[in-house]
Amino acid sequence: MKTSAIAVSGLRKAYGDKTVLDGIDFDVAAGSVFSLLGPNGAGKTTTVNILTTLMSADAGTLRVDGHDVVTGTKEVRKAIGVTGQFAAVDELLTGRENLRLMADLKRVRSAGQVVAGLLERFDLTESADKMAATYSGGMRRKLDLAMTLVGSPRIIFLDEPTTGLDPRSRRTMWQIVRELVSEGTTIFLTTQYLDEADELADRIAVLSDGRIAAEGTSDELKRLIPGGHVRLRFTDQAAYRSAAAALREVSTDDETLSLRIPSDGTQRELRAILDWLESAGVEADELTVHTPDLDDVFLALTDRTNTDDRTNTDDLTNIDSSTTSKEIAR
Ligand SMILES: Nc1ncnc2c1ncn2[C@@H]1O[C@H](COP(=O)(O)OP(=O)(O)OP(=O)(O)O)[C@@H](O)[C@H]1O
Predict the structure, then answer these.
(1) In this structure, how many other beta carbons lie within 10 angstroms of the beta carbon of residue 136?
(2) What's the CA-to-centroid distance between 306 and ligand 1, angstroms?
(3) CB within 8 Å of 210: residues ≥ 6 apart
């Protein structure tokens, strides 16, 4: 079994009489990327602030790198790095000076060398001696992440790391995150961009109304949402019509000559559909599998008009990856 980098149980936090986190549990395996998603104001930053010891919880047990955040605050702080929505970058210092300051604060040995290495890794060497105030948003975020990496923290909290970045800079960030993970670093990621979570996260938790509405791999979450289907496309009208007549439980699209068969997209179900087509003598020109994307999942799980209907989403929490999708879906 993998060791936990972060283990959270029964986390509660209220601001005054407003409960933001209403007893949440999750576990982040060491060397993985865990993404916490949720609508604005769901409590993502609050969770990050509590895990990074900036704020205290009202209740719950939280361990980071094996240390309790209350009794082992010092050890937790040593093990983590945090980049926030409001960067720690000092605009009046150069990139190199910002990094140097961080290296001195963390008492890093061979600081000059470490700083030079980070400037190079983040492609900031050319601008290293310019004031950070002159940096673009993307450069500033890169500098922020570079500062987080000083001292090689084992666990990194990235709170919306690519907000406002152009597509190329986002991809550079993603590449860096992947490199960090391949080196064994654990990443706790909050993001507004679902494609980012889809791209990077090993496991995703969706926070809604103070609870974890669902948790699993991106694929597991997508399978929870109805809408997955197999689409058969025909070029021949007659073949289309006879297939539509032969197959029950399909929806038809006469304009594009396509049939839509509900499916969760698993190998087992695909095999059943193919057998079914074979026995009905249906041969389509094109067969494609469509699964709902993470946007669909997010919208379905965080739909505020559905919040009274808790039973649906309560069933979806903590999906074991060994559970088959059929078991999840039904
Ligand atoms: N210090 C505070 N005092 C009172 N209320 C707060 C405080 N900090 C946050 N809140 C409230 O708690 C809720 C959760 O805030 P939080 O910043 O954790 O959400 P978030 O999921 O990070 O949101 P966003 O996606 O907008 O960054 C919000 O309703 C916010 O207004």
Answers:
(1) 13
(2) 22
(3) 19, 20, 21, 22, 23, 24, 43
Residue 74 Cβ inside 6 Å of ligand 1? The answer reads: no
DSSP string, 270-284: HHHHHHHHHHTT---
Query: What number is the ipTM of this complex?
Result: 0.96
Instruction: Return the CATH fold of 4-223.
Output: Rossmann fold (3.40.50)
pLDDT one-digit tens code per residue, 184-221: 999 999 988 888 999 999 999 999 989 999 999 998 88
| Ligand 1 in reach of 20 Cβ (< 6 A) | yes
**Ligand 1 atom nearest residue 49's Cα:** 18
pTM of the model: 0.76
The best mutation among 21, 44, 55 to test binding of ligand 1, ranked by most ligand atoms within 8 Å of the C-beta, falls on: 44
- pLDDT beyond 90 at 156: yes
> Is the C-beta atom of 13 inside 6 A of ligand 1?
no
Q: Which of 149, 33, 29 is nearest to 81 (CA)?
A: 149
